[in-house]
Write a structure and sequence with these properties.
Length: 341
């Protein structure tokens, strides 16, 4: 089964047409498909449309939040309810074209075949590894320039900082294997970083160019604040993926550098103070020298950073008891050593 998860926030007008397009694609491609609408606190009557669709079509399921919790929460609820081995996400504003779904599946199956062929012809070929996450890439984006250019800058920053090089991290149309989403916990607004979080767990991430359509109904729900929050979330993701299991390596390193600089400054001031005992004209009194304040500040900051690092290590060790720090892709049976998933 294939699951399609659709977060909805005030998209009443687009929902019937969106369902009709997805259903047409499923019939044409003969897909066993379920559609999960997650109403994220809509106030325009979107839930009534979802209820009607669920009543008329067995493959449609609806989830309604009591209030607006954000896209990450809506996706999490949809992922938890999804039963498919492959899960798609689309935005509900009709800008993502459901006709692209078979192309995602073709790419996913092509990678599976190449990986299988490589196992059968071991030593004779090095196939491209199968993909676990495929992200859409809106090469030609049908949005105003003041949304397109900041998004491109943001995508460049995400790729540069995380090492997961995608043209369009923000694209709402993505395809996942279900096991990816079982290992990733979303909160805040980290939904746009799922490929980054998946890559940090060892899953294989790729992208595919898709067709992007102009908006037909309503207006965009995102403004300037989205980019500010996105940058802060990027720093969070960088910390989680790079130092989530070893926070002291970052905080302690910064603290150690600051601590050493503070000590060097104080050591220099101590030497000049001794020299001033015999040659008072060479140096100003210590209390008149800015270096004293800077050195003390660096010393205190370094000590605090290292202390915070130790506390973060304790929290990580305690919280990590319920969460593995690794991801298992394959095991061997203890009886006959055959592989199973």
């Amino acid at each position: 089964m294939i699951s399609v998860v659709l977060p909805v926030f005030n998209e009443r007008d687009s929902l019937p047409a969106l369902y009709a397009e997805i259903a047409a694609v499923a019939r044409a491609a003969q897909l066993d498909l379920e559609i999960i609408f997650v109403d994220d606190g809509s106030t325009d009557g979107s839930w009534q449309i979802i209820r009607n669709l669920a009543h008329d079509h067995a493959e449609v399921h609806g989830i309604r939040f009591r209030r607006n919790f954000g896209k990450a929460a809506a996706l999490s609820a949809g992922f938890r309810a999804a039963r498919g081995a492959i899960i798609f996400t689309l935005d509900a504003d009709l800008q993502d074209d459901p006709a692209e779904i078979p192309r995602f599946l073709t790419l996913l199956e092509a990678n599976d075949r190449s990986e299988l062929a490589g196992k059968e012809c071991a030593g004779r070929s090095t196939p491209a590894p199968g993909l676990d996450v495929i992200s859409g890439w809106k090469r030609v984006r049908r949005d105003p320039w003041h949304k397109v250019w900041p998004s491109r800058i943001f995508n460049y920053m995400v790729s540069w900082l995380t090492g997961v090089y995608l043209h369009d991290h923000n694209c709402g149309m993505k395809c996942y294997r279900a096991e990816v989403l079982r290992e990733i916990r979303l909160y805040g607004e980290l939904h746009r970083f799922i490929p980054v979080l998946a890559a940090a767990r060892g899953f294989r991430v790729g992208e595919m160019e898709i067709y992007h359509r102009p908006r037909r109904f309503g207006r965009s729900k995102y403004g300037v604040r989205r980019f500010i929050k996105g940058f802060l979330d990027l720093l969070t993701v960088k910390f989680l993926t790079g130092f989530g299991q070893r926070p002291q390596h970052l905080l302690g390193s910064l603290g150690l550098i600051s601590f050493l600089l503070g000590n060097l400054g104080l050591a220099y001031l101590a030497v000049t103070w001794i020299i001033r005992l015999w040659h008072p004209e060479k140096y100003d009194p210590l209390h008149q020298r800015p270096l004293l304040i800077y050195s003390l500040a660096a010393l205190l900051l370094g000590a605090q950073m290292m202390s915070i690092g130790f506390l973060a290590e304790l929290v990580t060790a305690y919280m990590g008891r319920d969460e593995d720090s690794y991801s298992i892709a394959e095991k061997t049976s203890p009886k006959n050593h055959e592989t199973y998933f």
